[in-house]
Amino acid sequence: MTEQPLPYKSFDPSTFREKPVSFVRRSGRMTPSQERAWNDHHAKYVLDIPHGPAATSVADGAHGDPEQIFGRRAPLVVEVGSGQGHAILHAAEQRPDTNFLAIEVFRAGLARTMIRAELAGLENLRLAEVNAPELLEKYLPAGSVDEIWVFFPDPWAKARHHKRRLVSADFARIARQALREGGVLRLATDWEDYAEQMREVLDAADGFERDFAGEWAERFEGRVLTAFEKKGADKGRAIRDLAYRRL
Ligand SMILES: C[S@@+](CC[C@H](N)C(=O)[O-])C[C@H]1O[C@@H](n2cnc3c(N)ncnc32)[C@H](O)[C@@H]1O
């Protein structure tokens, strides 16, 4: 019998990231109205960020200047994993003097955010369709962010998936770099062991101090109820808020 060559699997290793990402990109098709909103308005809202090898990566050397992006100098709040945009839309409406940047890899979520931003006539909101830690680490200038929000990040509940959790020692390092001195990282989750992990990681992180007394932070009053929070609460899970100030 002649020896068969081993099947050759071609792949380009440069398309694989060094670190696991905290999302699985949903192919989730957009509705016709989302598709329309995306086509009509993405140039106005979505940052034009050069990608690296992966579709949601940020190319090395890509930089953004918040003053140029928003056309003005103002405090900057960045939401990581904004979903359908409920929290950031509400905040952007309430605080016209602040700039808001929503980072989300789920395009249909961004399209929904855009539809509501248009209806509300918001001028202080921009969107980014990229892996959030890369944007915070590479694209934004160090010390340029006043607040980072991470509300109900994907829990990656199974132990073998914990390495995919967004909030890690590495994320703490990246958040610290992006935040200005005195800036705040706000987090919320309905997964108790993730809340404990967040607290452990951030208590141990250099350059942060707790911005709450007692076991957990008070519910952040700018945080609106989202479907994810409601689902957790309906299942009887406690909702945990955390806040850490950048030293
Ligand atoms: C469980 S949902 C919560 C959405 C929203 N914060 C809320 O409370 O309704 C988590 C969202 O984070 C997004 N996400 C996860 N990892 C991300 C990352 N590394 N960069 C950008 N978005 C991410 C997911 O696509 C998903 O929409």
UniProtKB/TrEMBL annotation:
Q: Which reaction does it catalyse?
A: guanosine(46) in tRNA + S-adenosyl-L-methionine = N(7)-methylguanosine(46) in tRNA + S-adenosyl-L-homocysteine
UniProt superkingdom: Bacteria
Might you give the EC number(s) for this enzyme?
A: 2.1.1.33
InterPro entries per the UniProt record, alphabetical: SAM-dependent_MTases_sf, tRNA_(Gua-N-7)_MeTrfase_Trmb, tRNA_methyltr_TrmB_bact
Sample GO molecular function, one term = tRNA (guanine(46)-N7)-methyltransferase activity
Pfam hit, one: Methyltransf_4
Cross-referenced CDD domains:
AdoMet_MTases
Which of this chain's residues are annotated to bind S-adenosyl-L-methionine?
Answer: 79, 104, 131, 154
Coiled-coil annotated spans:
none
Pathway stated in the Swiss-Prot or TrEMBL entry: tRNA modification; N(7)-methylguanine-tRNA biosynthesis
Q: Which SUPFAM superfamilies match?
A: S-adenosyl-L-methionine-dependent methyltransferases
Q: Which keywords are on file for this protein? A: Methyltransferase, S-adenosyl-L-methionine, Transferase, tRNA processing
User: Per the similarity annotation, which family is this?
Assistant: Belongs to the class I-like SAM-binding methyltransferase superfamily. TrmB family.
The name of this protein is tRNA (guanine-N(7)-)-methyltransferase
Biological source species = Leucobacter ruminantium
